[in-house]
Write a structure and sequence with these properties.
The protein is α+β, with helices and mostly antiparallel strands. The chain is built from 16 helices and 14 strands. A hairpin with a 5-residue loop joins strand 13 and strand 14. Bound molecules: uracil and calcium ion (CA).
Length: about 450
Amino acid sequence: MRIYDLILKKRTGGALSEEEIEHLVAGYTEGSIPDYQMAAFTMAVFFQGLSESETLFLTRAMVNSGQKVNLDHLPGIKVDKHSTGGVGDTTTLVLAPLVAAAGVKVPKLSGRGLGHTGGTLDKLESIPGFNTGLSDTELAEAVNETGAAVAAQGQNLVLADKKLYALRDVTATVDSISLIAASIMAKKLAVGADALVLDVKTGKGAFMKEREEAFELARIMTAIGRGAGRDTAALISRMDQPLGRAVGNALEVKEAVLSLCGEGPADLEELCLVLGGWMVFLGGKAESPDSGGEMLKELIENGAALDKFKALVKKQGGDWKAVDDFSLLPEAEQKIRVAADRDGYIIGLDALKIGTAAVVLGAGRQKKGDHIDLAVGIILEKKIGDLVKAGDCLAVIHARSDSRAELIESVKSTVRSAYKYSNEPASAPYLICGWIDREGDEHRV
Ligand code: URA
Ligand code: CA
């Protein structure tokens, strides 16, 4: 099999067989196929796309390029979730304990913050002692005992993705829908959950800026899931403004705890109940996603969800007392108000700008391996739809005491510029654009 011929075939719009794709991925992973040939291939894919079966072959070949996490020996239906990433997206912290409280097993492997988006592992590590570095055996044991565990994805999972993603990053081929779908789904399929609920984001703060692209990505990812024998559903939700009010690691942990008590922001609660409703439904504990959501509401009201979070924190070595006593969590020394400079209704709140401002404060990494500050971030006091008067507090910046004055000024001006106003009331913001059910049927709101 000549790699040249495979590149040419894709460049001219042909379809590759499973053996051909397997050969490419295996050869690239072990190093016998050089970067320049793989780069040419990914560019051909960018322009010609992959068919549904080619995308499934690519995903399977990527899964086979590394180790897998086998959870077959765990009793019960295991349900995983994945979000394509956003700003202030605190859903995993809420959903893992909440869905586990409904009796569904949730093994969740998560990542660190990337670009302007936060990462679940960083957030959890703001709880003193919390250990995200579980072995496969420890993960299985924690899920079996507590019902849910959240851990770092091992270094040897989906080896092809590590090389391929780095290559795409420098060859302008990241935003190919087929390649994104295969990259995300390979990492999900390498972990042996029985069912999967995807949250595909669209809008300013998301990978997929356009709604139709988000639906297409959701269609392809759910088709891959079904093709691999996993029960898969996807939600398409808006990420124009940050989710909830808190952006930043410890700040989002506090927001998650409030949500588990029923005192969180309305948008975060809505998304958690819809996504969680699907997880409970696919986990076989509810008749429908709606009744799954109702069940979760009760588990929040009766305290079971919060108890489950404490159990999860304790099992993973964290200081569970911090769940009741926020003074045990990292806290920024400086709190700076950002005031509105005019009257009006808020009609826009740019998630990308807020995410970037949080990174500049030190809540995220500007490059891989950077040290992050778990205490810093931004609390949004006003969001889309709110009426403000000049001088009202829009947001509070949580910064370190040694942050330079110029840095604070620049963050302040970025936060202020993220807000867009109108003299007319804004239409009520909605969150859910639609979903794809377990049969692959599309529903639009
Ligand atoms: N996230 C991933 O994991 N892979 C992609 O290709 C894009 C986003
Ligand atoms: Ca949030």
